[in-house]
Amino acid sequence: MLTNLAKLANYWDLMFSMTLRDIQVRYKQTLLGAAWAIAQPVAFILILAGVKSAIFGESSSEGVPHLIFLYCAMVPWMFFQSSMTFATTSISGNMNLVKKIYFPREIFPCSSILACIVDFLIASCLFVVLMVWYRIPATPALLWVPVLFVIELLLVLGLGLFVAASNVFYRDVKYIVPLTIQLLLFASPVIYSIERVPAELRTWYMLNPIAVIIDGFRRTIIHGQPPELGPLAVAAAISTAVFILAYAYFKRLESKFADMI
Amino acid sequence: MPVPIQFHHISKRYQLGAQHHSLRDAIPAFVRRVTGRASAEELKEGEFWALKDVTFEVAKGETVGLIGRNGAGKSTALKLLSNISKPTQGTLKVEGRLAALIEVGAGFHPDLTGRENVYLNGTILGMKRHEVRALFDQIVSFAELESFIDTPVKRYSSGMFVRLGFSVAAHVNPDVLLIDEVLAVGDMAFQQKCMQRIHELKRQGTTMVFISHNLNAVQRICDRAILLNAGEVTAQGNVADVIHAYREQVVAKEKKRFSKSVGRATEQLGAATGVRITSVALRNGHRQVAESFETGAPLTVEIAVDASRPVERPVINVSLERLDGLVCHVATTRGRNVLPGPLHGAQVIRLTYPALNLQPNTYGVSVEITEEGRATPLESRKFVSLFSVTSDQADGGVVRLDHGWQVVG
Fold first, then answer.
1. Most confident residue range from B13-17, B103-107, B340-344, B352-356
2. Could you tell me which residues come within 8 angstroms of residue B315 by beta carbon, excluding any fewer than 6 positions away?
3. Which of A35, B52, B265, B313 has its Cα between 20 and 30 A from that of A216?
4. pLDDT of residue B261
């Protein structure tokens, strides 16, 4: 795996070009352009916040306004969701290239995910504005955010490599992925607070690395607390394992991509 | 002498038809694979060898042409060379920076501008971004697209698209360049430019593998040629010899196909009008049926016709066409009073060329029977017979013109 990663370093320029392509193409011929990176999560949380206060009659969650409570989870969640979506078809949608020119194929899913990081960063800018607006203090706990992000990135890269390769062989994957994402949305504290999860289920619930990561974002940013270290260590271990296994799986299948028509 | 391309005993197996695209087919197949035996040598149902024990080497700076009919395995060989797919058996080594001119503009994205695509495609072909930046103006001016470079390529004409694609690829400066039938693009002037660029790369010592159906281009560019047929090497070596072998192979194959189709009387036209061409024979100067003729030697075309109704004022056209579609000569009886009507029953018409002044190549004979004043032919047979022309003279072109040289002063 290390030799593969070393080889990949030679292709940094290509990775950059492909990422740039994905970003440019995503917002070409749209009126709002990159503002969609913000508009998408914002529209979603406005709906959710509306539902929460109008139907459930709650004015706040975990003691903070819905808007910031939801947005804080929505930014890492959107990164996960869009990375998975774009990674799934990153190879099968580029078969013309796969069949004509050789370069390490992991560049396809990796550059789709890199492009999603850009969206993540744009969406984060608005979050900073919201923090100032709602007077959420910056605390040393914010230093955990990069750690949380790296764990999420490892997980996303691993899953992305897995679904991208699988979708070349079985187009079923393309339908399974959105379903799984939907399921995970409800199995993670995105639209609700982790406090709502019954204590006896909590151990099982926290085996889902996405749940740990999203809860971690909320804890560190909104509440200024460190994440729960036990579950975080487990999540980090799972994410690393997923990445290593998926990369090996990907490399084993890579040479067969071009023969699939 | 370094040998950057080593292609040793390579075989490649492909599966015909559907593979397992959905899990429902894949799971039983997986179970079979685990429980049963899987052998590398044997062909399972629906599999075929695209390449079978193919061996060749290309030395540094050498240009080798791969020729053969469609499906002979040329593109498969190129795919293996460029590492796009892996051989089933055999060992393959390619040294140095490799670039493939396989499908120009394959990496273009229609929504991006010409400029954005040059960077994208350049890096896909193995350049660094700073290298693309350094060559950018050169690439654009080679493609003659200075004023359109910031337009999305989806608004390009197909010619502009291909020009930009070729231009990027031609500036990669690789150690090993694979070229697959890219010269069939663009107008004449651009094709000329592409050829010049390939010659330039050749002079710079680039090792090249060239695939083309354009045998004239192969002859001009390549130092050596390899003929593939059904995945196997059938001839290898001197370009002229290999091209000759290829032409004979084509003629033999077309002959076989033609004799089958005549037996089945596939032509609907003759059946409908009642006028049929029953056979066409080519004879040499000794009145013997032949398939191969020397430039300048006599050729006789014997056409047997069967007309079930009288054709009052018949006209027969015979054209000699090169396989690339160039019509070299059309002989007609129209206005020459050589074929007095009516044409009725079984008759044989003979056309003689006392000197067949065509240059070495493969030609097809097409015969058409019509009637004075009639818009559509009564009977028409395209490439009813094929022949090859050989010569020991070194002059080139389409036809042989009588000529002489003199040293004056």
1. B352-356
2. B332, B333, B334, B339, B369, B370, B371, B372
3. A35
4. 56
Residue B126: enclosing H or E segment and its boundaries?
none
Domain boundaries, chain B: 5-34+43-247, 265-390
Pair of tokens at residue B371: 């009637």
Count of CB atoms situated within 10 Å of the CB of B209: 27
Report in angstroms the alpha-carbon separations of B54 from A73, A92, A137, A139, B287. Answer: 58, 31, 70, 68, 42
Classified by CATH at the fold level, domain B265-390 comes out as Coagulation Factor XIII; Chain A, domain 1 (2.70.50)
**0.90 surpassed by complex ipTM:** no
Residues of A within an 8 Å Cβ radius of B: 13-14, 16-18, 20-21, 24-25, 28-29, 96-103, 169-172, 255-256, 258-260
Six token digits for residue B293: 């003729």
pLDDT digits (tens, 9 = 90+) for A46-99: 888 888 787 777 777 777 888 888 889 999 999 999 999 999 999 998 888 888
pTM of the model: 0.75
DSSP B273-339: HTEEEEEEEEE-TTS-B-SEEETTS-EEEEEEEEEEEEESSEEEEEEEEETTS-EEEEEE-TTTT-S
Please give, rounded to a whole number of angstroms, the shortest distance from the CA of A156 to a CA of chain B: 24
What pLDDT digit, counting tens, does each position of A131-184 carry?
888 888 888 889 999 999 999 999 999 999 999 999 998 889 999 999 999 999
Q: Contact at 8 Å (CB) between A101 and B102?
A: yes
**B5-34+43-247 to CATH, choices 3.40.50.720, 3.40.50.300, 3.40.1190.10, 3.70.10.10:** 3.40.50.300
pLDDT digits (tens, 9 = 90+) for B300-333: 999 999 988 888 889 999 999 887 778 999 999 8
**Mutate which: A7, A96, A175, A259, vs B, most B CBs within 10 A:** A259
